[in-house]
Amino acid sequence: MVSNNLTYQDTIDKADQLDFPSSVLEFFEGLMGQPYGGFPEPLRTKALRGRRKMDKRPGLYLEPMDFDGIRTKLKEQFGGCSETDVSSYAMYPKVFEEYKKFTQKFGDLSVLPTKYFLNRPQIGEEFNVELERGKVLILKLLAIGPLSEQTGQREVFYEMNGEVRQVTVDDSKAAVENKSRPKADVGDSSQVGAPMSGVVVEVRVKEGTEVSKGHPIAVLSAMKMEMVISAPHSGKIGSLGVKEGDSVDGQDLVCKIVK
């Protein structure tokens, strides 16, 4: 509402045209239960645009969860799983998969002091990491090499228990590119703009794709939420201004729809 300069009444009047985060739509569906006093109407019906409504306990509407199937899938995908893994995946499948891919690449970093997980130590700073009871690593950062423009990586030199080691790391900050994008004209319905700042995680159309009103164009991830950017009217995708992985600001032009 704030980023798009919408008033309370604007939100109600335009609810069938606005792109709400997935979490908001799931709330309106009833997946999180029933709010005291019921859902606000006509906001709920307009925002859902024909999606299901659950006016009782969500479990009465949903198919039974196949825990055995989840357990088998996780064992095949990650080589093993615990009951905690099964429960975590059942509740947050995308988050869990990202977590497992991260730990497969970097190992269990829960033993690393939070300070150094969030920010690297200073050159020459020494700190300890207790892997398990009686097993402690003494680490000291010695130097950080120059950035390789070909690979986006750096060589990092450090001491581990007095022995000099070297490791190659990806420099994620080096890959950040500040790109100025044209803004969508809010008065031109053929121009579809990003509803807020975020990262494009999926593009569901191509140039020339025929779309109808409400057709999903792209998925935007912003502030740990995902929202679908949909077509405001029927037509054909004339041009795409973004691709997967792009960072966008509010009202950046996503695409144009020609009738």
UniProtKB/TrEMBL annotation:
<feature type="domain" description="Lipoyl-binding">
    <location>
        <begin position="183"/>
        <end position="258"/>
    </location>
</feature>
<dbReference type="GO" id="GO:0004736">
    <property type="term" value="F:pyruvate carboxylase activity"/>
</dbReference>
<dbReference type="InterPro" id="IPR011053">
    <property type="entry name" value="Single_hybrid_motif"/>
</dbReference>
<dbReference type="Pfam" id="PF02436">
    <property type="entry name" value="PYC_OADA"/>
</dbReference>
<dbReference type="GO" id="GO:0005737">
    <property type="term" value="C:cytoplasm"/>
</dbReference>
<dbReference type="GO" id="GO:0006094">
    <property type="term" value="P:gluconeogenesis"/>
</dbReference>
<dbReference type="InterPro" id="IPR055268">
    <property type="entry name" value="PCB-like"/>
</dbReference>
<dbReference type="InterPro" id="IPR003379">
    <property type="entry name" value="Carboxylase_cons_dom"/>
</dbReference>
<dbReference type="InterPro" id="IPR000089">
    <property type="entry name" value="Biotin_lipoyl"/>
</dbReference>
<keyword id="KW-0436">Ligase</keyword>
<dbReference type="Pfam" id="PF00364">
    <property type="entry name" value="Biotin_lipoyl"/>
</dbReference>
<keyword id="KW-0092">Biotin</keyword>
<keyword id="KW-0670">Pyruvate</keyword>
<protein>
    <submittedName>
        <fullName>Pyruvate carboxylase</fullName>
        <ecNumber>6.4.1.1</ecNumber>
    </submittedName>
</protein>
